[in-house]
Amino acid sequence: MIHSDLPCRDETWFRDLYRTHYRDIVAYARRRTNQCSADDIAANTFMLAWQKRFEIPEDNERVWLFGVARNLALNDKRTSRRKDALLQRLRSQAKSDQDQNSFPESKDYGYSEQLQIALNQLPATDKEILMLLCWEELSYNEISEILYETPNALRIRSYRARKLLAKKLIKITLQGE
Questions:
Q1: Which residues contact 115 (CB under 8 A, 6 or more apart)?
Q2: Residue 110: predicted pLDDT
Q3: Euclidean distance between the first and final Cα of the chain, in Å?
Q4: Which of 41, 44, 17 is nearest to 30 (CA)?
Q5: Closest CA to 89 of 35, 146, 36, 38
Q6: Buried b (16+ CB within 10 A) or exposed e, 4-13
Q7: What percent of the chain clears pLDDT 90, i.e. is strictly above it?
């Protein structure tokens, strides 16, 4: 159903909007971030413009686009800061682990060396999931943010990784006897 009071916001309108304002939006984003992120911000700005084309105030499109680009740039900076902080924590932890022979002692079970060998035989992502779960004591929801996987997928992967780790550990332990 077409309402007569709504502005015509068809493909032609969008192409004109894009041609008229793209350079300004990408230049704005480049002054605030790196070129790759700026291109993404500009693309996402116009994607949102198309999706919300009937919500954009008439005769105020340029300002609306800058507002969207600003919010996207701020989100990009927050994301970058979070990633940098996480990388710093991981580097710090890795250095700390390296200083402590890179593996916690397992006094209760007496097989930390075998466990380390078994863990090192796992695929890198499986090892990472188990380490984040067990040593870092993170939840599936927290790990999903780090690894960009759903919590349910991580539960399944951790179950499989634990089974594989157990098999490898049994094999290593039996070989040592």
A1: 103, 106, 109, 169
A2: 44
A3: 78
A4: 41
A5: 146
A6: eeeeebeeee
A7: 34
The residue whose two tokens read 């300002």 is 63
Residues in the chain, overall count? 177
Q: Whole-structure pTM over 0.85, yes or no?
A: no
Residues 6 or more apart whose Cβ sits within 8 Å of residue 104: 112, 135
Which residues, including other chains, have CB under 8 Å from residue 169's CB and lie 6 or more apart?
111, 114, 115, 118
Among all chains, which residue has been given the structure tokens 């960009």? 148
Contacts 24+ apart (CB under 8 A), 70-73: 70/28, 72/29, 72/41, 72/44, 72/45, 73/29, 73/32, 73/33, 73/37, 73/41
Locate 69 and state its tokens.
Answer: 């680009």
